[in-house]
Specification:
This protein is an alpha/beta fold and about 240 residues long. It has a domain at about 1-75 and about 185-235: 3-Layer(aba) Sandwich (Rossmann fold). It is about 35% helix and about 25% strand. It has a six-stranded mixed β-sheet with strand order 7-8-9-3-10-11. A hairpin with a 4-residue loop joins strand 5 and strand 6 (about 70). Helix 2 runs parallel beside helix 4. The longest helix has 15 residues, at about 170-185. It is globular.
Length: about 240
Amino acid sequence: MLSVHAVRQLRDFVLDVTLPVREGETLVLIGENGSGKSTVLNLISGILTPDRGEIALGGRTLFSSGKRIDVPTENRNIGHLFQSYALFPHMTVAENVAFGLRCRKAPKSEIARCVAEQLQAMHLSDLADINVGRLSGGQRQRVALARALVLEPELLLLDEPLAAVDMRARGAMRKELREHIRNAGIPCIVVTHTLRDVLELANRICLLEEGRVAADGAPEEVLGMRENAFIASFAER
């Protein structure tokens, strides 16, 4: 279970969100560009620090302004997939997937076993020794997801996970992504601008407007709010 209450002064407005995400639930954040969606992910993962609030995951407090707790990003056990995937272009597929385990100083035998299992799960075994710069967008997405999942995170944060995937491959990759999220069985937050992503991935939708939760509910409920200008345009995409 993820519990978030985070407040942070941004350039144009104050972001103030309260979000719970249950085990195995996928919450999709939608909203205009600049509404605070990616900022929410960065606050949860520890890349940014709230001005005040509290963030807890699995009963463990990750941030609390009142208790002066701020767990470092590397100790939060969160898988964060960035829109750019943030892979290391000079490394091979296997080296990228192993990076987090090496930072944790896991034994070499454990690293080899875990990386091999993730590469097989992501259908990347044949590409283990290939430099990631030679991969397609869909293959890079698999590598980034494998790198996140190999750490056995308690939470997944996915920022526009299919943005770099070729349009022709997005349908298949979306189904793969949904299956991997489901198999992980942990809370997941996805940021997207694509209606198809929402329809196939979301258990819940949260609409952000200038850093505030304007709507939060089941997909059919939120997408049915056609009186909202953003929802009306989003539902027609």
